[in-house]
């Protein structure tokens, strides 16, 4: 079946009432037909039919075997890290989501895990970072916010020869544009808060597995730790997924148009959008994606310009987060990546001039008009 059909029909089939939309099962307990018998549901944390629907849907969309829904992306990552033992070492993409870096540097460091940050797009650098204790590679492609690309086929091949797990945070592109499990990864993670939910009104996290061993372990950990997605939020996520292909097409088409417009502005030094054909990472990316997503970062001519633009916008909102219907502009250095030590952030290209735009579903000409008036207002003030 086509991806769009899976978005609508996988995970839930009309029950005995014929309900077309998945019911929200809030029951905490499920009556047993007899001793040592179960309907398949016993207690809400372990599994409930609404969460099961969205978990099945995401497994189908990513081409995996099992999905797991959590209360947030960070809860999904924290649970995933429990697969590992004190002393285990990770190789991670250098400019990850700021919250992931914070978790790695604090909670998991305390638990004895160690990390080396490298440009995972550079296999030589990855090889250099390898140690006998290395157990996994954790990748974002494109990375956040500087849009570096990692060749998932090549890195998975290298990692599997060394018996490492390949974990991909697929939040930015979603399985509509990129399917890491089919490119060789073992586990996919999502912040469902972003494109999967898609409407800036839901907090959720997802893991998708394909190996039986990972599936069994994560099923145990999800139930044991308990940061699961609620029935209502499971339903909201399931509803968001039905329109994922339509939304992603529009996000990407608008983003390309806006990226091209930004490139022509004298106040913009550089535009990071992997869909621009003259982008240095275009060739590596195009081999593994079917579209380029809705995230653009750009470097303004000066810190003063970047800061002023944020207060001159009228339609685009100056806010964190991404992947929803509303366009949001962020200042990564002070927002999403504020916990990254300043020198490290600067070394990664997250500087005082960098802005990140999550292109929403408004008409692209209205987004451009808003940026245009904000740029003009800043120029007038200067
Ligand atoms: C937002 C985000 C996360 C964290 O997810 P939450 O749902 O906010 O907990 C992880 N990775 C990426 C790429 C994100 O954008």
Cα-atom radius of gyration? 21 Å
Strand order of the largest sheet: 1-7-6-5-4-2-3
User: Kindly, what is the distance between the CA atoms of the first and last residues, rounded to a whole number of angstroms?
Assistant: 56 Å
Please bin the fraction of helical residues: 40-55%
Named once each, the bound ligands are: pyridoxal-5'-phosphate
Biggest sheet details: 7 strands, mixed
**Which regions are unreliable across 5 or more consecutive residues at pLDDT < 50?**
none
CATH superfamily of the largest domain: Type I PLP-dependent aspartate aminotransferase-like (Major domain)
Describe the structure.
40% of the residues lie in helices and 15% in strands. The chain has helices at 3-9, 49-62, 73-81, 98-110, 123-129, 152-161, 174-177, 180-183, 212-225, 231-242, 244-263, 282-286, 303-312, 342-347, 364-381; strands at residues 66-70, 89-93, 114-118, 134-140, 165-169, 187-191, 205-209, 268-272, 295-300, 317-318, 328-330, 354-358. The strands form 2 sheets. The protein has a 7-stranded mixed β-sheet, sandwiched between helices. A 5-stranded mixed β-sheet has the order 8-9-12-11-10. Helix 3 runs parallel beside helix 4 (98-110). The N and C termini lie far apart (56 Å). Bound molecules: pyridoxal-5'-phosphate.
Topology:
Blueprint: H1 3-9, H2 49-62, E1 66-70, H3 73-81, E2 89-93, H4 98-110, E3 114-118, H5 123-129, E4 134-140, H6 152-161, E5 165-169, H7 174-177, H8 180-183, E6 187-191, E7 205-209, H9 212-225, H10 231-242, H11 244-263, E8 268-272, H12 282-286, E9 295-300, H13 303-312, E10 317-318, E11 328-330, H14 342-347, E12 354-358, H15 364-381
Parallel strand pairs: 2-3, 2-4, 4-5, 5-6, 10-11
Antiparallel strand pairs: 1-7, 6-7, 8-9, 9-12, 11-12
Helix pairs in contact: 1-2, 1-10, 2-10, 3-4, 13-15
The structure holds pyridoxal-5'-phosphate.
Pyridoxal-5'-phosphate is lined by residues 72-74, 97, 99-100, 140, 144, 169, 171, 191, 193-194, 203, 205.
Protein name: Cystathionine gamma-synthase
Keywords: Pyridoxal phosphate
Family: Belongs to the trans-sulfuration enzymes family.
């Amino acid at each position: 079946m086509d991806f769009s059909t899976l978005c609508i029909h996988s995970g839930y089939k009309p029950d005995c009432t014929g309900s077309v939309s998945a019911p929200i099962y809030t029951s905490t307990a499920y009556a047993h037909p007899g001793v040592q018998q179960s309907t398949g549901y016993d207690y809400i944390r372990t599994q409930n039919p609404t969460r099961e629907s969205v978990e099945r849907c995401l497994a189908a969309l990513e081409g995996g075997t099992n999905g797991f829904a959590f209360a947030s992306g960070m809860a999904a990552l924290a649970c995933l890290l429990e697969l590992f033992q004190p002393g285990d070492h990770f190789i991670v993409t250098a400019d990850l989501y700021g919250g992931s870096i914070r978790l790695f540097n604090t909670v998991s460091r305390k638990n004895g895990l160690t990390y080396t940050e490298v440009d995972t797009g550079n296999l030589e650098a990855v090889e250099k970072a390898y140690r006998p204790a290395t157990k996994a590679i954790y990748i974002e492609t494109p990375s956040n916010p500087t849009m570096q690309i990692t060749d998932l086929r090549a890195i998975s091949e290298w990692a599997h020869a060394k018996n490492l797990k390949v974990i991909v945070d697929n939040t930015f592109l979603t399985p509509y544009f990129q399917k890491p499990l089919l490119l060789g990864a073992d586990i996919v993670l999502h912040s469902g808060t972003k494109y999967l939910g898609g409407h800036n009104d839901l907090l959720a996290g997802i893991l998708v597995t394909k190996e039986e061993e990972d599936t069994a372990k994560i099923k145990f950990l999800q139930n044991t730790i308990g940061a699961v997605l609620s029935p209502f939020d499971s339903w909201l996520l399931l509803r968001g997924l039905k329109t994922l292909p339509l939304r992603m097409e529009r996000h990407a088409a608008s983003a390309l148009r806006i990226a091209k417009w930004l490139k022509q502005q004298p106040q913009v030094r550089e535009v990071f959008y992997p869909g621009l054909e003259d982008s240095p990472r275009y060739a590596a990316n195009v081999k593994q994606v079917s579209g380029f997503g809705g995230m653009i970062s750009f470097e303004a001519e000066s810190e003063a310009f970047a800061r002023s633009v944020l207060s001159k916008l009228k339609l685009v909102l100056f806010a964190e987060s991404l992947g929803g219907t509303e366009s949001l502009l962020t200042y990564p250095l002070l927002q999403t990546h504020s916990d990254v030590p300043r020198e490290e952030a600067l070394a990664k290209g997250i500087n005082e001039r960098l802005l990140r735009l999550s292109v929403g579903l408004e008409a692209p000409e209205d987004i451009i008009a808003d940026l245009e008036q904000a740029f003009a207002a800043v120029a007038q003030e200067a």
